[in-house]
Amino acid sequence: MRAVRLHGQGVDTLVVEEVDTPRPASREALVEVRAAAITRNELEWPQDRLPAIPSYELAGVVDGEPVYALTPFDRDGVAAEFAAVPEELLVGKPRTLDDVQSAAVPLPALSAWQGLFDHGALAEGQRVLITGAAGGVGHFATHVQPLRHDGGLWGCDCAEHAGVHLFEDFSIVENVDADGLPVPVGEAGARLLVTNLFNHTQPLIRFELGDMVTVDPQPCRCGRVLLRLRELEGRSEDVIRLGGVTVHPVQFAPLSSDPDVREFQVVQEGERLRIRLALRAGANGAATRLRAALAERLHEAGVAHPAIDIEVVERLDRPPGGKLALVVADRSPRGRASDRAAHEPGARAQRERAAG
After folding, report:
1. Per the CATH hierarchy, to which homologous superfamily does domain 239-355 belong?
2. For residue 47, what is the DSSP state?
3. pTM for this prediction
């Protein structure tokens, strides 16, 4: 059979040659290769076993059935007329893609999945902002993320990094207040209602997300005319109200960015905050330092007299679902009393001063 073989470094060392057709081992299939994809820098990999056949992604046919696969890296690749591939790695080729498109899917799609879920540990209810959605891996990330999480694909960043552009051709996104009424452009809402326009298998109609956002009325300098979310202030269930001031999770950045903090949890108890800290070994004096830093941050946000208690623990116990709530707002009567104070005269002005 004919195969492309690498004899050195770089594309100039590729040669089409006649080689033996591989003999499938037990539980392997002989694939008639229709298309093979190559990965960046791949021609620099097999320097210890030249000459070598490159490409480890393929689309082809086995016994008349179209298949595609990402093949093992411990052997020659698949830039040949035939390739022996473990049967467990072969799956049916997507019916809506041709051979070339299918061969280009496995590695970037797997990289996107591993980046989001295996290494990034993206959990149920969390959001991810994909800033490189046009890249080889990024464009897959925009599609695999909605497969696992609520709401689906409804926006992305741009080169100006000035907010999130809404995909108005994919979804209808409504910014509403706590009563479900539309919020004027330029004002912060309490949650989003998302209706997707592309999922015919499981459509979502006015699916509620707890994101608190503001829609910017001004056009973005990138030139896109899609509506833009200027501020993503957190999720409504993570918002705490202290002394008539709305405290968003971003105010706890001194905890999340400190190298001595392994993990933390903010628990509201009326007008007080209990900060539960799991610290790294040797973090002497960290609790006192973090309490002072957080008090200063809250004071700058408009909380006149922040009341903060620090509780150092070995570890933070997680619920059966496994997701740790970083912020636990007080929804008891004493917590609701603080919530009502946030709507009293003068509270809005205080928040606006804190926002600058």
Report:
1. ANL, C-terminal domain (3.30.300.30)
2. T
3. 0.44
